[in-house]
Amino acid sequence: MAGFPGLCRDGDGTRRLDPALRDDTLARIAELGSRSLLVLPQRGELPPGAFEGLGDAAARHGLTLTFLPIPDFGIPDAGAMARWRGLSPDLHSRIAIDGAAAVCCQAGAGRSGLIATLVLIEQGIDAAKALSEVRRHHPQAVETAGQERWLMDRRPQL
């Protein structure tokens, strides 16, 4: 789980993109064994230019990008879940082969934690245990009660 590569806040709270931080984040994701990055933010919620250059930067680090926009603090809608059903088998395969897969949102907590927990549930882990495991690594993971309820309704798919 990661924040959006290169997204940072200045002292006054202004969000901006830092290309060096973007490359450092992508390099760290690759070092941890991931060959893919699932990107969850919607275009309008990030500073202008956030997505431009991300694909080239990811490719330099051997990462394949996949986009699955989910509203901030939200859950996947029916369209996103239909897309997820197509993406999920490849993601599980990458985890089995590479031992890792990366997911990012703005800060790497809410939506990233949601999807990380969903992956564990799909692998057969009880929803409450899956959420507890993800929060053990990032205590702020899964930020809303609505996200928690949505996860508790999920069942293994594999």
Describe the 3D structure.
It is built from six helices and five strands; from the N terminus they run E-E-H-E-H-E-H-E-H-H-H. It is mainly alpha-helical. The chain has one domain (7-152): Protein tyrosine phosphatase superfamily (Protein-Tyrosine Phosphatase, Chain A), CATH 3.90.190. The strands form two sheets. The protein has a three-stranded parallel beta sheet with strand order 4-3-5, with helices on both faces. Strands 1-2 form a two-stranded antiparallel sheet. Strand 3 (36-39), helix 2 and strand 4 form a beta-alpha-beta unit. Helix 4 (110-122) crosses helix 5 (127-137). The model has no long low-confidence stretch (mean pLDDT 94).
In short:
The chain has 158 residues and is mostly helical.
Topology:
Blueprint: E1 7-9, E2 15-17, H1 19-31, E3 36-39, H2 54-60, E4 64-67, H3 78-98, E5 102-104, H4 110-122, H5 127-137, H6 145-152
Parallel strand pairs: 3-4, 3-5
Antiparallel strand pairs: 1-2
Q: Give the helix tally.
A: 6
The stretches of 5 or more residues where confidence is low (pLDDT under 50) are: none
Q: Determine the strand fraction and express it as a percent band.
A: 5-15%
Structural class: mainly alpha
CATH topology: Protein-Tyrosine Phosphatase, Chain A
Q: Give the tally of β-strands.
A: 5
Major beta sheet, specifics?
3 strands, parallel
> Average pLDDT value?
94
Q: State Rg.
A: 15 Å
* Overall morphology: globular
CATH superfamily: Protein tyrosine phosphatase superfamily
The helix/strand order is EEHEHEHEHHH
CATH class: Alpha Beta
Number of domains: 1
Helix content: 40-55%
Alpha carbon gap, first and last residue: 22 Å
**Strand arrangement in the largest pleated sheet:** 4-3-5
